[in-house]
Amino acid sequence: MSDRSPLVKCLVWDLDNTLWRGTLLEDGQVSLVPGVREVVRALDERGILQSVASKNDHDLAWARLTELGLAEYFLYPQINWGPKSVSVTRIAAELKFALGTVAFIDDQPAERAEVAFGAPAVRCYDAGLVGTLPGLAEFSPAVVTVDAARRRQMYQASFRREAAKESFAGPDEEFLRSLELQMVIKRADEVDLSRVEELTLRTSQMNATGVHYGDAVLRELLADPGHEVLTVMLADRFGPHGAVGVMLLQCLPGVWHLKLLATSCRVVSFGAGAVILNWLIDQAARAGAHLAADFRPTERNRMMDIAYRFAGFAVAECGCLAALPARDPGSGIQCLHLTAEPRSAPTTMTLTSPDLAASHTPARTSPAH
Length: 369
Ligand SMILES: [Zn+2]
Description:
13 helices; elongated; single chain; Aminopeptidase; 22% strand; 2 domains; 14 strands; five-stranded parallel β-sheet; Rossmann fold; binds zinc ion; alpha/beta; seven-stranded mixed β-sheet
């Protein structure tokens, strides 16, 4: 493998004589190949998903994986008598991964050849290499973010959520309430910065300006009392959604300048964008500030455009805008304005957030009487 090969996003395991020693249906009891548990855990912590393609009795094999304490690590396991190229392709389709990001490990040359023939983009590894996998470049992401380490749990929560949604007959708002959504908006710290950067890079659909703020810039702004760098986390009764939004805000007296808002497209259907904007508008209102938001319309961020307009932002003249830095007319960035008024708390989720208004309300001059 050259170091140009893309990172592996999912490793698919054979079981007999690959994950465990022996053949389950012949030997009855099988034990793990030494070191395998550590490899499974190491890849999981790096955010690499794992699955199983095994020709075996499904119930027996799954029971053994459960006894071994490994079942929870495998998403969409394919334990059946069909061709493994079909199993691997099905796993990739369920995860919405390209086959070129999937790897397969098996002790049988014939099985590896079958996968290589039926799904040529999949990278195949001999079971003898198992202990070396964590050391290979394609299994070594440069940065492991907090969310990457929880990627499997986030997928599993998402399966349970989808299943609950399919079996739910009531209106959408009732379904949202049944999720027991909890949003946490917090001031970013150093640890959060990796999430912030990941989000601004990944969320072009939901990034209001398309401007990417690098780590160094954000690190500087964390220390600047006039700026707020905020992250948004969402969870529900099925588990975490992880970091789903980031805001970069400059709080000037009389006007708060929203320089960046990016949210994950995973949470659009929960109305997260509207909840974030309403919270911000309410905070600005309590600080006696107007809001100005940078926005650059693109083909891909129409949902964000709608969220801003729906919240009440518009292109408008206002004296407060004179406080903002002059913008480069060639940048294509519009300035949307809103005269902030108090907003009510969300009805579909609980919200925990810092009190920005308290930190950024200008000190009153002495009363006139
Ligand atoms: Zn204004």
